[in-house]
User: Which sequence fits this backbone?
């Protein structure tokens, strides 16, 4: 099984290498990178390219590792025991109240699957440690039914992180790591081509120029990323804004139109306006 890229996701050679390395090692691929650089979409793309089902597990601050394995629905069981009759007969088989989590579904699937554990850094610090054995051995024990669940096929696991918390060393040891570098101009051009085929070349050129200049401003609190550039381009097209309007080069250098798609807080907008103002005075 090898990932060779896809038509609607731009994967650089080093990213493809990392994906295939993780597949060969049969270890989870830990993907980091700025927000909006395609971490989540990577798992979706690989699953589609390899023709495997994708099981997604989106992590929140309250998510527990156990929920990925299974949950025991004690409330339903209690209700059934009180209702009696048809419901009451279900009560004795505890497996009626075991709800399978993402890992169990993947382990019991008839074909290999792709698992996405998205934004692992959102959970508390114990979360990754609690999954070490399951991800390593691909098995776990269900105490309620005294059953060992073992993966029929080892799933391909993608784990994304936005670096909000450090991950424990024991966890890192078990992963293959890849940092998605921010795309250079050329890669960004290909990403735009994938999303907006046939967009005017001059508009793309001017937009890229403004975008990368903006990212280079020192002291920006939140640099715009790929998904924000795509949003901005979509708006420019929808509003029919001509390429010349993006950078009024001479007298009236102005802040780019619809900059709300790119700059996400007022300090950054002020910073940018100040720079534009200074550039004007120096003229
Ligand atoms: N390499 C790429 N090729 C094609 N589209 C891309 C690429 N990178 C990013 N995008 C676009 O950017 C959007 C955001 O990507 P995605 O949601 O995967 O980012 P992310 O890294 O998971 O962000 P976050 O950390 O905020 O969750 C995607 O919907 C896609 O349209
Ligand atoms: Mg994401």
Assistant:
């Amino acid at each position: 099984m090898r990932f060779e890229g896809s038509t609607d996701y731009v994967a650089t050679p080093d990213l493809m290498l990392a994906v295939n390395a993780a597949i060969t090692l049969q270890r989870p691929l830990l993907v980091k990178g700025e927000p909006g650089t395609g971490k989540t979409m990577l798992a979706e793309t690989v699953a589609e390219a390899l023709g495997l089902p994708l099981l997604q597990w989106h992590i929140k601050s309250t998510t527990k590792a156990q929920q990925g394995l299974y949950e025991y629905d004690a409330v339903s069981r209690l209700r059934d025991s009180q209702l009696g009759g048809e419901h009451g007969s279900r009560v004795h088989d505890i497996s009626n109240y075991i709800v399978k989590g993402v890992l169990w579904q993947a382990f019991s699937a008839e074909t290999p699957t792709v698992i996405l554990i998205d934004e692992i850094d959102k959970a508390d610090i114990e979360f990754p440690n609690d999954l070490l054995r399951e991800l390593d051995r691909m098995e776990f024990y269900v105490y309620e039914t005294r059953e060992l669940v073992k993966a029929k096929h080892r799933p391909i696991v993608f784990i994304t992180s936005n670096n909000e918390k450090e991950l424990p060393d024991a966890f890192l040891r078990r992963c293959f790591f890849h940092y998605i570098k921010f795309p250079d101009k050329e890669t960004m051009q290909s990403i735009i081509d994938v999303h907006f085929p046939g967009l005017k070349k001059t508009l793309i050129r001017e937009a890229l120029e403004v975008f990368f200049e903006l990212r280079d401003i020192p002291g920006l609190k939140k640099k715009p990323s790929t998904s924000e550039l795509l949003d901005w381009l979509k708006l420019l097209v929808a509003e029919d804004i001509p390429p010349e309007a993006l950078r009024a080069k001479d007298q009236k250098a102005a802040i780019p139109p619809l900059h709300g798609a790119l700059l996400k807080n007022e300090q950054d907008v002020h910073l940018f306006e100040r720079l534009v103002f200074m550039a004007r005075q120096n003229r």
